[in-house]
Each structure stands twice: as C-alpha cells, then as structure tokens.
TrEMBL record:
<feature type="repeat" description="TPR">
    <location>
        <begin position="98"/>
        <end position="131"/>
    </location>
</feature>
<dbReference type="InterPro" id="IPR019734">
    <property type="entry name" value="TPR_rpt"/>
</dbReference>
<protein>
    <submittedName>
        <fullName>Uncharacterized protein</fullName>
    </submittedName>
</protein>
<feature type="repeat" description="TPR">
    <location>
        <begin position="132"/>
        <end position="165"/>
    </location>
</feature>
<keyword id="KW-0802">TPR repeat</keyword>
<dbReference type="Pfam" id="PF13181">
    <property type="entry name" value="TPR_8"/>
</dbReference>
<feature type="repeat" description="TPR">
    <location>
        <begin position="302"/>
        <end position="335"/>
    </location>
</feature>
<feature type="repeat" description="TPR">
    <location>
        <begin position="234"/>
        <end position="267"/>
    </location>
</feature>
<dbReference type="InterPro" id="IPR011990">
    <property type="entry name" value="TPR-like_helical_dom_sf"/>
</dbReference>
C-alpha cells in the first residue's frame, strides 16, 4: 500500500530511509526525489542515490529531471553508452533542455574530446537563463586543453555572477599564475576588493601575488587585511610569516607561525618554518628541537628529514646526516636533489662508490647542474676511474658547452690519463673561451701548470689573440 508523503511526518530523506527499512512504500513528489538524490550524490552515497532514482522513476515515469539524474549517475560510473542511449530518447521529448547538452558534454569530456564538450556547453549556454554552472564547466574543459586564457575568462564569468564563488576566484588566480601574469592578477584582485573589501580570500591571494613579485611590504599589508577580515584565517598568518622571513624579521615570523598552531592543530610545515627561523637566528638548539617536532608531527614529510640532514651536514656530523638523508630518500626516492645531497655526504665520508652511485641517480632523475657534473667527475677520479671522470665531463659539456670551469677540469683529467692530444684540444678551447679563468687549472693541477707543454699552449693562444 502506497502512503502519500503528507501522511507521515518528517523530512523526505528521513522518510525515504525509514521506507527502506520497512515493507511500506511511501509516495513522494518528484521534487522530493530530486532533493533526496542530490543529498546522496553530494555525500558520495551513489548506491542510495540509485535506489532513490529507481523508486522515483517508478512513481514518476515521465519526470525528465529524474531521468537526467539517472543519466548523471550513469556518466559518473562511466556507463557512457547507456547514458547516450537515454539522452537520445530524452532529446526527442525535450530538445531545448540545457541539461541534456551538459550531460552530453560530460560524456565527451570523459572521452577526452574536450572541443566537442565545449561546443555542447556553448549550446547549453544559449538555452540557459543563468549559465553559472555552465561557465564553470567550460572553465574546467579549457583547463583540460591547457587553454588558460579561455579558462580564465570562463571562471571570471562565474565570479561576475557570484562574488562569493571562491572556488572560481582561486581558478582565475591560478590561470594568472600559470601565465606568469602577476601584474594582471594584482589588478584583478584589487578591482575585486573594491567591491568586496572584507574578503579575506582575496586579500590572501593578493598578498601571494605581491610575494611572487618580491614586493614584501605590500604583501605584508595584504596579509594584515586578510587577518583583519578574519582573525582565524590560518593561511594568512602562515603566508605573513613567510614574508617576514624574507624581510629578515625572524622573531616576528615565528610569532605568526606559532599563531597558526594556536588556531588549529599543530602542522609539520609550521614547525619546519619555525626551525628555519631559529637556525637563521643561530639558536641551533631550538632549530633542532623544531626540526624533530616536524618529523614527529609528520614522519612522511621528506623536507623535515632533509632539514635535519642539513643541520648535521653543516656541523660535519656526516654519519648522522647520512642516516637522515636516507629517511628522506625512503619517502621520495625520485627527488634528484636528495640524491645529490646523499652523494655529497658519501663523498665527505669517503664512500666514493656510494657517492658515484648517488650522483648517477641524481643525473638519471634529471639533475643536470654544472656542479653535479664537476663533483661526480671528482668522485670518479677519487675512485681511481679517471676514464669515467673524463666521460662524465664530456656529458656535462653537452649541457654546458661554454663552461670554462668544466673545460679546464677536463683538460687536467685528460693529462692525468696521459691523453695529451685531447688535453691540448680541450685546453685550447678553455683558453679561447675564458683565459682569465686559467687559475682554475693552475690551482687544481699544479703539476701540469708550469710545464713547458702547458706554457707553450698558453703563449700560442696569447699570440693568436693579439
């Protein structure tokens, strides 16, 4: 026996869940079913949403909105072919329904055909009275296509419609940042703040733009206004702390980081920044304390372990540094800078085999810095493998063909390998490149610097340059 919803008190959701627990069947208006389904979808309860759709369509088989919700769930679950068949049927009944085009656009988006999705969304926009949600979807489609200018325009439309749509505001600023148009972001945010002077989110974003442009006093002012607008806004205190750090005001920075800890539960990032401030204040005991607090709070924060590594490395406690760099590598073994740090520590420990391996890992992962090639070559030479050292420097020259420092080192290593022919060619290249840096060769290879062989090459180059 079906009971009308008016016969039982309570909200539609509570009544619907009560119905599921009994053998009774309650009657709901189509709008009630829509509310119930949206509730479950918003809370990630897809199975219950599907039950509501099924019962809803049994009671209201002609409801286009319920059919559209059915299609939305099918698209969400990647049942795209079934969803398209239902859309075809629905379009015959209501060809001017914007939601039909939106769901078709979602299907094309799922298939990575973003241009087709955009065309359908513009068709939906023509049929829409508001268009807010459609502009948001357009923005996301343009982001998928890496068209940041068009994405930005779409999200700007959302903000025009709803000044409090902070998600779209963030996306607008994200596009400015990706395009590295910090001046444009500053202008846009200032215009926005003229309309919404107490928006802490906008002040916070404005401060971040000033920070990127190294306009620290202006950034500080913006973060202060964010805090005035909302004195519990943790992000503003944290960013203000970063600005104060850059300005060398470490005690004030610490105060702001501590405020973030007071507002919410302690965060490893706040502890890490406090530790960095104390280290710059040369309060090493407090720095170490906060670094250990960092990894205690979040053992998976690799930057915390790296901070402890650096702390011990600077104090030449290489065994401890080695222990902690391995903690960082266990968390992020794909980070080339960590491998380079590991190589430097192993070199200090005179573990040249391990240092060689670490430098190779750093290069394989994309660290092509000049110092990496130079130090790796030195390690190979200390390992007694001079030919590998020369080969490493040859690879480095592919990235730094004009580096005199690299050329002088390579010439010296070739002489160590008794390869005078190639050493002569390399030394001539170095002298032609930058004769003023000859001292690098003289300091590192004094045994070759004052020989007739070397002096004759230098004299020839000097004569040729007159």
């Amino acid at each position: 026996m079906a009971l009308h919803s008016d016969e039982r008190p309570g909200r539609p959701i509570a009544k619907f869940e009560s119905m599921l627990k009994t053998d009774d069947v309650y009657f709901f208006d189509a709008e009630d079913f829509e509310d119930i389904i949206h509730h479950y979808l918003n809370n990630g309860k897809v199975a219950l949403a599907k039950k509501a759709i099924k019962i809803g369509l049994q009671q209201h088989p002609d409801s286009i909105q319920l059919k559209l919700l059915d299609i939305e769930v099918l698209v969400f679950q990647n049942n795209l072919d079934e969803a398209e068949l239902l859309l075809d049927k629905l379009q015959l009944l209501d060809s001017s329904n914007e939601e039909i085009y939106i769901q078709r656009a979602n299907i094309y988006s799922k298939k990575d055909n973003h241009e087709a999705a955009i065309n359908l969304l513009y068709k939906a926009l023509e049929l829409s009275n508001n268009g807010y949600d459609i502009h948001s979807l357009l923005g996301m489609e343009y982001l998928f296509m890496d068209d940041f200018k068009m994405a930005q325009k779409s999200f700007m439309k959302c903000v025009e419609i709803d000044d409090h749509d902070y998600s779209s505001l963030y996306n607008v600023i994200y596009c400015f940042e990706f395009l590295e148009n910090f001046d444009g972001a500053i202008h846009y945010l200032n215009e926005y703040l003229d309309r919404n002077p107490y928006c802490e989110v906008a002040w916070h974003q404005l401060g971040k733009q000033y920070f990127e442009k190294k306009m620290y006093p202006e950034a500080l002012t913006a973060f202060d206004f964010a805090i005035i607008s909302d004195d519990t806004f943790m992000g503003a205190y944290f960013e203000k702390g970063k600005v104060l750090e850059r300005m060398g005001k470490y005690l004030e920075a610490i105060e702001n980081y501590e405020t973030t800890i007071e507002i919410e539960d302690p965060t490893s990032h706040a502890y890490l920044r406090i530790g960095k401030c104390y280290e710059r204040l040369r309060n090493h005991d407090m720095a170490k304390f906060y670094y250990y607090q960092t990894v205690h709070e979040d053992p998976l924060l690799d930057k915390g372990w790296l901070a402890i590594t650096d702390y011990y490395y600077k104090r030449r406690k290489y065994d401890k540094a080695f222990y902690y760099i391995n903690k960082a590598l266990n968390i992020d073994g794909e980070n080339p800078s960590y491998w380079k740090k590991c190589a430097k520590i192993n070199t200090a420990l005179k573990k040249y085999d391990q240092a060689d391996y670490a430098y190779k890992q750093a290069v394989d992962l994309g660290n092509y810095e000049l110092t990496t090639w130079l130090k790796w070559a030195e390690v190979s030479q200390l390992n007694g493998d001079i030919n590998s050292a020369i080969e490493i420097l040859a690879q480095g020259r592919e990235f730094f063909p004009e580096s005199a420092r690299l050329q002088y080192k390579m010439a010296g290593f070739q002489l160590l390998a008794n390869d005078k022919i190639n050493a002569r060619i390399t030394l001539i290249d170095a002298l032609k490149n930058d004769i003023e840096k000859l001292f690098l060769f003289e300091e590192e290879f004094p045994q070759f610097a004052d020989t007739d062989w070397t002096l004759n090459i230098i004299a020839d180059i000097k004569r040729a340059s007159r």
